[in-house]
Design goal:
The radius of gyration is 17 Å and the shape is globular. Strands 1, 2, 3, 4, 5, 6, 7 and 8 form an eight-stranded mixed sheet that branches. It is α+β, with helices and mostly antiparallel strands. Helix content is 19%, strand content 31%. A hairpin with a 4-residue loop joins strand 6 and strand 7.
C-alpha cells in the first residue's frame, strides 16, 4: 500500500479531510478481550505537532507510560484516559487527561476531528481525538503516569512500509496486532548516531493504522 503523500499531512489538508471525510472502514476495531471488568469509556489525544518550515514536518507526540501503572505499564501510548462524569464530551476528556499527564495546555491545541472508537483487550472503549498542536508549548510530564515523552515524524507513521503485522495463538484463538518500531535518532558524546528503538505496538499502533486508512482512502472509490 502507498504512503500518505506529504502534502496530505499538512494542517490545511488534515482539516479538509476531517471536514469532508471519505466513506471508509477502520481496519481494526477491537482486540481480543482478556479482562472481566466492566467496559470503561475513554479518550486519547492524537497530538500532531506542527514542526518544520511551513509546518511541513509534522510529528506525533507520544508518551511512555510509567512502569508501575495498573494497565499497559511501560507501553508507548497517546496521552489520555477515562471519561469523567463531568466531561462534556470526548474532546474535553482528551484535553483534560493530556494536560494532567504531560502538561500540554489546551491553548496550544486545535481539535480537528476524531476516529471511530477502538476497544482494547482491557475493556477500554477509546475515542481517538485528532488535534493540531502549535510547537511553542512547554511540557510538564506527571512522573506518576508518564515515564517519557517523545515525538515521531507523522510521515514515518503514515507509511505502511514501517507497519508490521504480528499473529500468535492465545487461549485457543489467534490474536493479531500491529507494531511500528521507530529508530529514534540519538547522538553519543563522540558525535556518532546511535538510534534507540521506540517500539510502538498494540492499541496505539492499531489507532495509527486506522488513521493511515482514513487518510489514504480515495474519496472517489
Amino acid at each position: 500500500m502507498p504512503a500518505v503523500p506529504s502534502a496530505h499531512l499538512l494542517p490545511a489538508a488534515l482539516k479538509a479531510r476531517f471536514a469532508h471525510p471519505p466513506i471508509w472502514q477502520p481496519e481494526i476495531e477491537r482486540e481480543t478481550s482478556f479482562s472481566e471488568r466492566a467496559p470503561a469509556q475513554a479518550a486519547v489525544l492524537v497530538p500532531i505537532v506542527m514542526r518544520g518550515p511551513d509546518l511541513s514536518e509534522p510529528t506525533i507526540l507520544l508518551t511512555q507510560r510509567a512502569n508501575h501503572m495498573a494497565t499497559h505499564s511501560g507501553q508507548i501510548a497517546f496521552p489520555g484516559g477515562k471519561v469523567d462524569p463531568q466531561d462534556a464530551n470526548r474532546h474535553v476528556t482528551a484535553l483534560r487527561e493530556t494536560y494532567e499527564e504531560v502538561g500540554l495546555h489546551s491553548r496550544h491545541v486545535e481539535v480537528i476531528g476524531e476516529l471511530p472508537v477502538y476497544v482494547t483487550g482491557t475493556a477500554f472503549w477509546v475515542t481517538p481525538v485528532i488535534a493540531l498542536v502549535s510547537p511553542d508549548f512547554e511540557l510538564a510530564p506527571n512522573p506518576d503516569e508518564v515515564q517519557d515523552v517523545f515525538e515521531v515524524p507523522l510521515s514515518f507513521l503514515m507509511n505502511p512500509a514501517h507497519h508490521r503485522r504480528h499473529a500468535f495463538e492465545w487461549q485457543g484463538a489467534q490474536r493479531q496486532w500491529f507494531s511500528m518500531p521507530y529508530p529514534e535518532p540519538r547522538w553519543a558524546t563522540d558525535g556518532q548516531s546511535a538510534p534507540v528503538e521506540r517500539f510502538i505496538w498494540g492499541a496505539t499502533a492499531a489507532m495509527l493504522r486506522n488513521f493511515y486508512r482514513f487518510l489514504v482512502v480515495n474519496p472517489t472509490e
